[in-house]
Amino acid sequence: MSSVSSGNGLLHLEDMEAGPSKDNDDLNNHLDPDADPSNPFDIAHTKNAPLETLQRWRQAALVLNASRRFRYTLDLRKEEEKEQRKRMIRAHAQVIRAALLFKLAGEKQIVPGTPVALPVAGGDYAIELEQLASMTRDHKLSALQQYDGVKGLSGLLRTNLELGINEDEADLLKRRNAFGSNTYPRKKGRSFWRFLWEAWQDLTLIILIIAAAVSLGLGIKTEGLEEGWYDGGSIFFAVFLVIVVTATSDYRQSLQFQNLSEEKRNIQIEVMRGGRTVKISIYDVVVGDVVPLKIGDQVPADGILITGHSLAIDESSMTGESKIVHKDQKEPFLMSGCKVADGVGTMLVTGVGINTEWGLLMASISEDTGEETPLQVRLNGVATFIGIVGLAVAVSVLAVLLARYFTGHTEDPNGNREFIKGQTTVEDAFNDVVKIFTIAVTIIVVAVPEGLPLAVTLTLAYSMRKMMADKALVRRLSACETMGSATTICSDKTGTLTLNEMTVVEAFVGKKKINPPADSSQLHPSVVSLLSEGVAQNSTGNVFVPKDGGDVEISGSPTEKAILSWAVKLGMKYDVIRSESTVLHVFPFNSEKKRGGVALQLSDSQVHIHWKGAAELVLASCSRYLDSNGCLQSIDEEKDYLKAAIDEMATSSLRCIALAYRLCEKEEIPTDEESFNRWVLPEDNLVLLAIVGIKDPCRPGVKDAVKICMDAGVKVRMVTGDNIQTAKAIALECGILSSAEDATEPTIIEGRVFRALSEKEREQVAKKITVMGRSSPNDKLLLVQALRKGGDVVAVTGDGTNDAPALHEADIGLSMGIQGTEVAKESSDIIILDDNFASVVKVIRWGRSVYANIQKFIQFQLTVNVAALVINVVAAVSSGDVPLNSVQLLWVNLIMDTLGALALATEPPTDNLMHKTPVGRREPLITNIMWRNLLIQALYQVTVLLALNFAGLSILHLKDDGNRAHAFEVKNTVIFNAFVMCQIFNEFNARKPEEINCFKGVTKNYLFMGIVGFTFILQVINLTFFYYYYFCFSWAVMFDLR
């Protein structure tokens, strides 16, 4: 189980890097007491599932085309190859890079859209590429010291360590030409020809091709080229059509997945350019850039530490060792692709793209998008069961037809026996046996629903593309369908339920309420000076004042921006203050302690320690306060008043932040470096400077979104680090709490109270919790575990690095695209791009839509299977012939597997989906309503087709036709056409399994209408122009029937 250190907020990612933990396996086993160990397809959780389990269901599946069936599942063999490749790159990075550069120089091309500049010698810079790359790659501290450290190196790279490089496009181009771009060549995706090759690997199609070749040879030999090619040629054409349509559909899906993968890789990062903090794509980082780093960030390129405080890097993604490395001037080298586990710092970029080990690694391995989903596994089980039944039926039909043929019970349309012992030639008998064998093989093609598991991929690909438009980026396929089963959402408050647009609206200095809050005239200059000092230095934000006198630009987190804006209005001179004091030590904001501190040495050698954090927690550490006149006062008598002020602000849904400081004697500061690095800033005897109330309004529409969730049987729980009163006020405003009377424990609870409970008590209390205030990331993890053990399917939102364990543990982890750290995003299953709770509700709709669409396709496909198998079996047993020949069955299979899946798997979600309860993990795929529809429709089709088969000549007035062969061809044409029309209209039935009006809303689904129309037109063309291919009469013949 992943853990979070309560001491310094350091995130331990070992278990997430190493794979599924034993604890997690035990939890999953605990959650599935009904799981059948003998059933390899009974896997309710594919997230973090053991490899043995994934291997077991693959071996149990009945598969005709493994390369196609398992294309979008995890390639277990490649996973091990990828790990071996990583180890080899770490050991031989320099050789691999040289080989890659040689290959690129020879090819002069890479995948379109990912340009990689071939680096050349330094030229405009006083250091060459190879010198820079080798120093960073080999961590040569001596070489860095020869360049006079990072300061000297910045001079060689023409970089200002405080302001960064200029945003001049010409300068950026020079840097890319000299040192390369931060991109790497990617393995090309499969071409359309590769998909064609894979589509014909189907075992039954290969057998049919062989049978067609035999039939073609025999036909030409016995009937001549002009007439003899029809039989084999028609099968060849049908197989070719199936392969092309299948490959085209698969290729389109592949392109969609490639586009989504590109979105996931395109990380937005912050860099300093021209003195301002700007957001750019990770691909636009160049050598010489100055990059601020904070907890949760991904190191975007190789570099050297400029300044850092408590900076700890998780290098497990590169070194393979699960340990955190602390960075300082003795260990200043940073590797691309690693994560910031703790602390803050800035780095100078010295290597990008394939000049980094991370770039080499990414260029050398192909990203495998394959992954299991529970529905995929279950549908493979269904497909295997149906396939076994179909195989048994095909073998039975083959045996019956062969027995009837060789015993002389099979007759041609004119009533003559087809096989007469001693008279029928071996050549004729062989030709007839090939036809019988072809029919049996084609029955297998129809009966084994290869398209059933792939329909999941089709609907997921469609849903993922549409979800991007709804501001949700899916990182793991399984999350799409699991979201449809979600029974509870544990949501953050800030930025998810609220707008994340923060403003200081109230301020207390001592007992005095400053109104308006930024009116500095009500404060003594010494108070303003200390407030400005604390805000400017104890912040991860930045203030940029344009030289031309334009508007001040403030960057940072929403809370930081709100406090910096307030201080600027008070008269804070950001650059001046930062230049007048030196930062000695930093305690980065910690979600466990909910405060952050900084030690400053002033120009007069005084040391100030400034703290900023949750108001009631900082207040508890204060012994005095500074009043608005700048006088120090004892806080003992005023604490109750200040607590009441905090509660009043919190009740008004304000986030309360306190600012405090204290003097620190020089003797208290450790002198030796080792002790200094471990120095814990004193946080007692503080002097309170101010308490501010920050307003963060609720998002418009969030109340409606919460109500939609409640109506859909999904309980919304708020889990926030804010004051319990603030949490309560926001919960009432959002509709999470229906009334103030509900706000009693344990409905509303503090994190510390919940974590103090025993494991058994937590399971009982978790169900009742609606709001958890003052919670830590570990409290959120405990809540998720307790809810899952209670049988809930849990979705969790998170944005911080310390949220990673909860996101990883939840059934569905939802990270925030705007405020979320890279660690949180990598631990999540879906990224909410606009940080909006309404987008979470849309994800639930799509999750339920995936499940509903698959059920529609199952109903449609099983109806076709039952009807086709019954009609052929009954006809074969009774008359020794089948009304649907191999070419016709292949056309039906094309309608069913590819076009049917495309039509039904792409139905958009409806409002009706959100009026149902969540889909249970073990709810049967085929519901009672589906069985009813399936059996009635199959019975109807079988009745119509058998009636046409046995009484067709009478119904069509063909009994007196002198040409019996002509009469049978017309009858079989009618049966085939009736069968196809039944399937086209059955697609309408399958759209609305639970509604009487199956045409409702059909005109709004243009893709469905287009596919149905396309299928109908193809059927007309087939029967009108391909008479010989189908051995049937044209539509004109049918319409002339009397």
In short:
The protein has 1042 residues and is of the alpha+beta class. It is 50% helix and 15% strand.
Can you offer a commentary on this structure?
The protein has 1042 residues and is α+β, with helices and mostly antiparallel strands. The chain has 4 domains: 142 residues, Calcium-transporting ATPase, cytoplasmic transduction domain A; 275 residues, Calcium-transporting ATPase, transmembrane domain; 151 residues, Rossmann fold (3-Layer(aba) Sandwich), CATH 3.40.50.1000; 181 residues, 3-Layer(aba) Sandwich (Calcium-transporting ATPase, cytoplasmic domain N), CATH 3.40.1110. The protein is built from 40 helices and 28 strands. Strands 12, 13, 16, 17, 18, 19, 20, 21 and 22 form a 9-stranded mixed beta sheet that branches. An 8-stranded mixed beta sheet has the order 10-28-27-26-11-23-25-24, sandwiched between helices. The radius of gyration is 35 Å and the shape is elongated. It starts with a strand and ends with a helix.
